[in-house]
Amino acid sequence: MSYLFRYYAKVYDRFMSRFHLDDDSIILDIIGIGNKKIADIGGGTGRTGDKLIKKGHSVTIIDPSRSMTIRAKKRNKKIRVINRSMPFDMKEEYDVILFRDCLHHIRKQRETLELCSNKLRKDGLIIIADFSPESIKSKIIFCFERLCFEKIYEVDEKKLLKLLQSFDLNTKLIRINHRDFIVIGRKNR
Ligand SMILES: C[S@@+](CC[C@H](N)C(=O)[O-])C[C@H]1O[C@@H](n2cnc3c(N)ncnc32)[C@H](O)[C@@H]1O
After folding, report:
1. What residue spans define the domains of the chain?
2. Global pTM value
3. Which atom of ligand 1 is nearest to the CA of 2?
4. Which residue, by CA, sits nearest to atom 3 of ligand 1?
């Protein structure tokens, strides 16, 4: 069980806002409005999930940290929560599977993404927002997380593109700045 998210849940939202790590506007623009079925992997306190529900979507947060997801439920009762760690064989299929600031916390990334690509509906998207390992600012974030006893598995965006392509997804890289990137994988069949 993660020490970081267990003890840090209380101050998580304030911390993210204070250090300007809470901007999910590009993700919200990519998904748009509608009634998509969305899995928010590592959705934590439900900041993004809440906004997606207000845009008409249904959201299931899949996240092992009860301290984090209790806050998501308080924020919006419509958020469904599954308290499990990825990878596991998800029962349902989704239009969008989102990893925002989460993939670098997951050890078995290949297995997780392969399972997710098999759970995408036609035209479904995997959206991964993470920190580029080359950036100094990312290194500072990872260093802080490691100091909080969190294991970090850095995500190289170029390797990530190749990995998603190997699952037959069409890919796109959006480089937001030197630190932040978004990788999108689309299933066409
Ligand atoms: C930095 S928080 C991001 C929360 C939220 N996505 C956001 O953008 O505010 C990372 C989250 O990933 C979750 N997490 C860590 N390992 C995970 C795993 N193996 N499967 C699913 N979620 C995981 C943590 O519990 C935590 O809530």
Report:
1. 3-86+93-134+141-186
2. 0.97
3. 25
4. 101
